[in-house]
Amino acid sequence: MRFGITGIVLSTLLLAACAPDNTASAPKGLQAAVNNDTGGSAKGDLGPPQGEPVHAILTSPPEVPPATGRSVPAKVIVELEVQEKELEISEGARYTFWTFGGTVPGSFIRVRQGDTVEFHLKNHPDSKMPHNIDLHGVTGPGGGAASSFTAPGHESQFTFKALNHGLFVYHCATAPVGMHIANGMYGLILVEPPEGLPPVDHEFYVMQGDFYTVGKYRQKGLQAFDMQKAIDENPTYVLFNGSEGALINEKALKAKTGQTIRMYVGNGGPNLVSSFHVIGEIFDRVWYEGGTHYQENVQTTLIPSGGAMMADFRVEVPGSYVLVDHSIFRAFNKGALAILKVDGEENKAIYSGKEVDSVYLGDKAANLASVGEARSAEVSGNLTLEQQIAAGKAHFNGTCSVCHQDNGAGIPGIFPPLAKSDFIAKDPEQAIHIVLNGLAGKITVNGKEYDSVMPPMSQLNNDEVANILTYVFNSWGNKDGRVSADQVAKIRAETPRAEGAAH
Ligand SMILES: [Cu+2]
């Protein structure tokens, strides 16, 4: 959509008229606005490409290619290969992603306004599907889609001039379009303004997407795409960078106190709008919708499906900052959570407190490798007690520990102990019921009365409940024992659950 010059000049004048005094340079500012902002795409035609053609550096997320550093338009050659790839979507759960460049999101592309981009799209010979690409940074019908339909083992080529600067989504637009996007076929292309962007210490590439599997959240093994869930807009996963584990633990984004950070954040959808937020930070600047203007001092910013934004902020105090979609069930129950780990000196004048706790990190604070290990062992029929305990511990921390504490001691008068619990000892199987269905009313544990409520935790799958309880039974002076996923499945099937409760 383009505005007429007059309309923009008028509205700019109106804005200038109501602007506070610190825009005293209004005539000059207005001049700049007319030149840079209202010329629209026509202004982005900075003439024919100059010099030798340049090969674009493409990066995998969360890396961002270096600034182009160019002051004249160039011919830029982009070579991108579509690969259909089975990757991990969650610990021990796999999914056949369709990717641009082997990753979800696809490779980051960086060019400068006025560049002439010669785009080569390859489709790997092992692909089962044809694919194409629609770049939102292209002016022309279909954004390149019509000229880039590419069968497996083929390559197609088209050329466009990057007329508008901004941060743009690209995606596959082959039918069924929704399915191609749901399988991970999207990425970002940054068209730098001619003068470049203000320099920062770190640039990161993060992209949200929603995923639809036949199996439940965190169900292990290879998961199939669920078309009906996708049509119903009821995702199993909402993820940053295509996997629950993409940006946590050793893969967390990293920075040092005092550094400036720019995040290029896109939303591939296919369905959901993102309420993007970083817990513990305020965005100093947000180039909302990836456009020309920035808003300042923003807590949460909306990123439309098929849209993007850039945000700058400076990290002042060390610790873990949690990136979330603040539609918050998506963060804690569908995976939309990532970590920015900041190291450096404390600054008690700014923040006195402790490292972000398990309430925000959940079991993602734990290394979930043991969970995947336990799962593969179970599939092969060789699950050992030690493996179950290790996996159970990872889930206990952040799931049960918020109330019962890491050491199982509970909190006197509020949360009963699981350590040396005579309540558990009396009837271990009862513990399965308690986890699945919750517990309310008066109970006595180790001679002390509790009269409180434990919420049902039936969102945990059978493996998780089995492993957590096996860990509890073999810890803190309890008298050992073992729970199997089959036992949990049986009890789950036997107990009726209220309508609307998790199954
Ligand atoms: Cu495709």
Write up this protein:
With 503 residues, the chain is an alpha/beta fold. It is built from 14 helices and 23 strands. The strands form 5 sheets. Strands 1, 2, 3, 5, 7 and 11 form a 6-stranded mixed β-sheet that branches. Helix 9 packs across helix 13 and helix 13 crosses helix 14. The longest helix has 15 residues. The N terminus is likely disordered. Copper (II) ion binds next to loops.
List keywords for this structure.
503 residues, binds copper (II) ion, alpha/beta, 23 strands, disordered N terminus, 14 helices, 6-stranded mixed beta sheet
Percent of residues in beta strands: 25-35%
Rg, nearest Å = 26 Å
Structure ligands:
copper (II) ion
State the helical fraction.
Answer: 10-25%
Cα separation of the termini: 46 Å
3D shape = elongated
Which segments are poorly predicted (pLDDT under 50) over 5 or more consecutive residues? 1-38
* Count of alpha and pi helical runs: 14
- Per DSSP E runs of 2 or more residues, the count of β-strands stands at 23
Structural class: alpha/beta
Largest β sheet strand count, sense and barrel closure = 6 strands, mixed
| Arithmetic mean pLDDT | 88
